[in-house]
Amino acid sequence: MGSIRAGRLCPKIASWVVEVAQASTNLNYELVDLADWPLPMNDEPGLPALGVYAQEHTRAWSRKIASADAIMFVTPQYNWGYPAPLKNAIDHLDNEWKGKPAAIVSYGGHGGDMSAAQLRQVAQGLKMRLVSTMPAITLTREMILGGPFDPQKDFQAYAESIRQALVELVVELEPKA
């Protein structure tokens, strides 16, 4: 989950994405909430590319990401970009991301295409293997302002693009001959 903002919609949206994923593939999913991973800005003395971490929270984060076979980012679009805590969580590591298959699901008042494009650039720079389908869920103003919404009902139009991204992610996980 790419957001730690108070009052965030990410937990509800990410949980729904996981439900779609579990119903669509035989993979195991773990919802990782960045709010549970406090990673202070720039507190590692060394370069992440060296893979030597002084802080226990960075070593734990490294183990978490290294243990994942693939990543599905679920992130909002804030002011045409993705949230700083997600960038910080990514920048804490380097080699743990390399070669990792990944998908991006974004959401926002405009669907999140701009945040997904920025995240895509960063992931490509880290040599992640990104799938081409990037679902972008458009939220109504009422949803953004805290009004009620039911992802099962309100986001059904986006379920197929999430399933397509998952199909592509499964292909990326298959051993290459």
Description:
This protein has 177 residues and is α/β, with parallel strands linked by helices. Helices cover 42% and strands 11% of the residues. It has one domain (16-172): Rossmann fold (3-Layer(aba) Sandwich). It has helices spanning 10-24, 56-67, 84-91, 113-125, 141-144, 151-154, 156-173; strands spanning 71-76, 101-108, 129-130, 136-138. Strands 1, 2, 3 and 4 form a 4-stranded parallel β-sheet that branches. Helix 1 crosses helix 7. The relative contact order is 0.17.
Query: What shape does the CA trace take?
Result: globular
Q: Can you say what the CATH homologous superfamily is?
A: Flavodoxin domain
Please write the string of helix (H) and strand (E) elements. HHEHEHEEHHH
Gap from first CA to last CA: 33 Å
CATH fold descriptor: Rossmann fold
In terms of DSSP E residues, the strand content is 5-15%
Mean pLDDT: 96
Alpha plus pi helix count = 7
SSE-based structural type: alpha/beta
CATH class: Alpha Beta
Q: What is the CA-based Rg, rounded?
A: 16 Å
Keywords:
177 residues; alpha/beta; Rossmann fold; four-stranded parallel sheet; globular
Write the layout of secondary structure elements.
Blueprint: H1 10-24, H2 56-67, E1 71-76, H3 84-91, E2 101-108, H4 113-125, E3 129-130, E4 136-138, H5 141-144, H6 151-154, H7 156-173
Parallel strand pairs: 1-2, 2-3, 2-4
